[in-house]
Amino acid sequence: FALVVDGASVTEGLAVADRVVAEINAPVEAGGQTCWVTASVGVRLSKADDTSADVLLRDADTAMYGAKSVGRSGVRIYEATMRSKALLQIRQGDELRGALARGEFLLHYQPIIDLATSRLTAVEALLRWRHPTRGLVSAGRFVPLAEDIGLIVALDRWVLASAVSQLREWKDTGGHAAALRVHVNCSPITFRTPGFAAGVLEVVSGCDVPADDVVLEITERQMIGEDPQTLQALQSLRSAGMGVAIDDFGTGCASLGYVRQDLVTLVKLDRTLVTRIDTDERQRGIAAALLSVAQAFGVDAVGEGVETCGEARVLQALGCSYGQGFLWGEPLDAAAAPGADRSFRTLARDGSGSSPRL
Ligand code: C2E
Ligand code: CA
Ligand code: CA
Q1: Contact, 327 vs 314, CB < 8 A?
Q2: Residue 73 C-alpha to ligand 1 middle, in angstroms?
């Protein structure tokens, strides 16, 4: 909807927008249920030299998307930087889509170590973009945009297929690698797509990999609420034996429902809670509490972002089974030179590589 408030001052215009939002926010009774509707409003203040209605509408629309991106209900006034940001997003979105078609994505793998034996048990696949001019770009830099433009579903599908077929290859080399598991990150947007679980199971069985050697990671902040589609997907995956991990455990507060319903096999204690766990008492207290919650539910834990032996030792003492972090290795290309001391292949083959013993 568009509203024209002719001759109004800024304050009057904003007051109208607030009134509209408040009216729309009022609960509605429908079919015996209470429903809440939200509204986001973008405001474009017109100046004397604004002649085109098209420009006013376009800018109000941009501001409305700005309002949407910060919350479900709200009002924002258009600023010139919003338009340049929106244009940049469109350009980068096009570039990202093209990157998938041009095969510019690759996976790096980071070891996950059994703290009791210091041996490699699994690897996490982390997405990278080999950008033609910017070099290797980390997932954190483009995954949010991929989610915004809906490309994440195709990307996650590509990651799963690549990681599972890589796992097959490693398993075929025998030795310690035969028991290796792979962790794959999955956006909640992907999780909610119809037929998601069936698609995942098809890929996994197509590569002849046991379902319990694959762990899907979903971040805690994104598990908010109990979305029926997510719940159903989790149930199908779990009944096929697939692992499910809560990523960034301890940064949200909404996932215990899933843990309680036996839909989760692992929690990954967030890096912000692991760092300085050996020197900071408060930090240790929080980690201990979260790990005992996981233990109470009978769920294993991985400490993320472990950078020192001290952190690893404290994690182990607190009952955490696994660790992941720069201490054992940064995410590495699967094809890292075979035989090189710090290469992933060494780690995969004999299970220890140059891994420090605790
Ligand atoms: P995450 O799943 O929590 O991954 C861990 C991130 O921490 C990775 O960043 C990794 O490189 C970094 N990291 C690992 N160990 C350490 C350490 O000891 N110290 C420090 N400072 N950092 C460490 P990355 O690769 O940039 O990934 C960022 C996030 O992007 C991931 O967080 C994950 O949520 C998301 N992501 C990565 N790959 C995918 C993917 O294939 N699909 C989806 N949907 N999301 C992905
Ligand atoms: Ca992860
Ligand atoms: Ca994490």
Answers
A1: no
A2: 31
